[in-house]
Amino acid sequence: MGDPNLVLPGLVIRTAQEHDLPLLRGESDEPYLQFLFQTAYAAMQRGEQVMWVADLPGNGIVGQVFVQFQSVRPTLANGVDRAYFYSFHVVPEYRGKGVGTRLLQTVESDLQSRGYALVTLTVDKQNERARLLYERNGYHVVGEEVVNVNSEKVNCRWVRIEETAWRMEKRIQPTFGVAVLLPST
Ligand SMILES: CC(C)(COP(=O)(O)OP(=O)(O)OC[C@H]1O[C@@H](n2cnc3c(N)ncnc32)[C@H](O)[C@@H]1OP(=O)(O)O)[C@@H](O)C(=O)NCCC(=O)NCCS
């Protein structure tokens, strides 16, 4: 992993703007991703999320990570002291240059300044490289999280299949008060 300031001079980590949305990426090109980005952007407008992007002038958006302050799953985010990041992605040709680490550092320092004490994430059990990156950055596995529910016919009966991922978290030191998520008016 390199220092992005040396490897990628000019790299800026900033919040997403509406015109960035078509440039964001995921591991697949499924059409629902654009819907997810639009939904996240609307949530950011309401103050419920932050979408961070890594912008390399002349090259465009090379990475992204979104942070959710409150979730229907309080083990991930509760709007008080625990926040969750997802959609963490760096464009393949820019991986291994420190962009992901810079995004993680930005997420953590922003959450510290908002008064959060815990950062959480989920990672596929097969995604060992990502898990190792998180461990190197101070996260540890604290449990499992159901990330997908499907049905499958086994012996003529529908069976519920749950796909689980690792839930990881890291304790951070809030630098400003305690976060309180106010409902939007
Ligand atoms: C995980 C990811 C966001 C990290 O971004 P990055 O800019 O490559 O991260 P850094 O350069 O700061 O750190 C590199 C480390 O990331 C980890 N990593 C995880 N997946 C990787 C991948 N597909 N390619 C390169 N590095 C990867 C490795 O530990 C690597 O360190 P190493 O080169 O010593 O093995 C990026 O690799 C990616 O987009 N991967 C595919 C999507 C993904 O798995 N997202 C996480 C979902 S939980």
Molecular structure report:
The protein is α+β, with helices and mostly antiparallel strands. It has a single domain, classed as Gcn5-related N-acetyltransferase (GNAT) (Aminopeptidase, 3-Layer(aba) Sandwich). The protein is built from four helices and seven strands. The protein has helices spanning 4-7, 32-45, 99-113, 128-136; strands spanning 12-15, 49-56, 60-68, 82-90, 118-123, 140-154, 157-171. The protein has a seven-stranded mixed sheet, sandwiched between helices.
Features:
single chain, Aminopeptidase, 36% strand, alpha+beta, 185 residues, globular, binds coenzyme A
Short description:
It contains four helices and seven strands. The protein has 185 residues and is α+β, with helices and mostly antiparallel strands.
